[in-house]
């Protein structure tokens, strides 16, 4: 079997959850199941400079992974007008002759890439994984209103509230085009039931939308921190620092705990690249106001076990719904209970009172109250640790995907 993977970035440049899983899935299918193929990651000048001679660039020593330099992306319409850049891929795709094309994101690629694939590989079956809500929501795929409130799903009135400069026709045509382009795929996958329900509620074909959980590479769990007094008061944040991930909410919760005289420590691990000056200023002010909080900056995958060994809890204070955050799987792999918002895909992954705790989303006071209870309730941490189930492995995820690919190809043959 030959497969072509398209992702919106490469984890060697930006180690986001989607990129990490997509690459891990591709490599597992290749190394463990004999699947041949190519992993293409779209990048822009923010990630890698454009080099003369070709829009295709190598990365590392891998011969079946490449970067595709694409500019001029229209984020509202998920459109890529760089037809020259896309056309340069046609000979590569034609030579590969993929049986399956698995698109993990339309960012940078645009809906035009789908048309290119259909022409260059007319016999290929198409799979799309909706790792977030970009096809539904032009507001950065977050399903958040412009003032930061949770949005129940796209409607003309809601979308015009976020995009008053856009006509109703712009918004309607965006939704129709994306539903038409991706509705022509053989399968549409979501990593959570919550996301599947959102796509179906927005008018997507229920019979083609199915849940396919993400997996994580195995690793030895980091040892738990010694706590002779039984006090579990070290909280860790892992991931990109931006306004959607809720770092400011966690800092304010920490400030409130300090003001109440509750001894604790909060450590935020993650870079803050590509953020606005106003966000950076607010984050700096939040750190200065929270005496027990520290920001340690970006980290690499090899550093994660050592960082996990220093915390008792992993906090996921995201202010949006989330879908299937990698950090939850990482926390469970290292046997750390998770405190997260009580909505969306993150709440689906974490069983309140069993392997973690739910807190009111985007509510610093509510989060501070849950964190205080986590510290002060005797035996709670041990009970939650005992309730943690091993996360789905990338090997099992690969087997499930391979079964899906075969089923999809079998349906074509039939």
Any descriptors?
single chain; 414 residues; alpha/beta; Rossmann fold; eight-stranded mixed beta sheet; Glyco_trans_4-like_N; Glycosyltransferase family 4 protein
H-E order = EHEEEHHEHEHHEHEEHEHEHEHEHEHHH
What overall form do the CA principal axes indicate? globular
Mean pLDDT: 94
Portion of residues in helices? 25-40%
Decide which structural class fits the backbone: alpha/beta
* Contiguous runs where pLDDT drops below 50 for at least 5 residues: none
Number of strands: 14
Beta-strand residue percentage:
15-25%
Name the CATH architecture of the largest domain: 3-Layer(aba) Sandwich
CATH topology of the largest domain: Rossmann fold
Number of helices: 15
* Major beta sheet, strand line-up: 3-4-2-1-5-6-7-8
**Highest-level CATH class of the largest domain:** Alpha Beta
Total count of domains: 2
> Whole-number radius of gyration?
22 Å
Sheet having the most strands = 8 strands, mixed
CATH-assigned homologous superfamily of the largest domain: Glycogen Phosphorylase B
In angstroms, what separates the terminal alpha carbons?
18 Å
InterPro entries: Glyco_trans_4-like_N
Pfam family, one: Glyco_trans_1_4
Protein name: Glycosyltransferase family 4 protein
Keywords: Glycosyltransferase, Transferase
Summarize the structure.
This protein is an alpha/beta fold and 414 residues long.
Describe the structure.
This protein is an alpha/beta fold and 414 residues long. It folds into 2 domains: 2-215 and 394-413, Glycogen Phosphorylase B (Rossmann fold), CATH 3.40.50.2000; 234-386, Rossmann fold. Helix content is 38%, strand content 16%. It has helices spanning 17-33, 83-87, 90-96, 111-120, 156-162, 168-183, 193-201, 247-259, 277-289, 304-308, 326-333, 344-349, 364-376, 380-386, 394-413; strands at residues 2-7, 36-43, 56-58, 65-69, 100-103, 125-129, 187-190, 209-211, 234-238, 265-269, 293-297, 313-316, 338-341, 356-359. Strand 13 (338-341), helix 12 (344-349) and strand 14 form a beta-alpha-beta unit. Helix 3 (90-96) crosses helix 4 and helix 8 (247-259) packs parallel to helix 9 (277-289). The two termini are 18 Å apart.
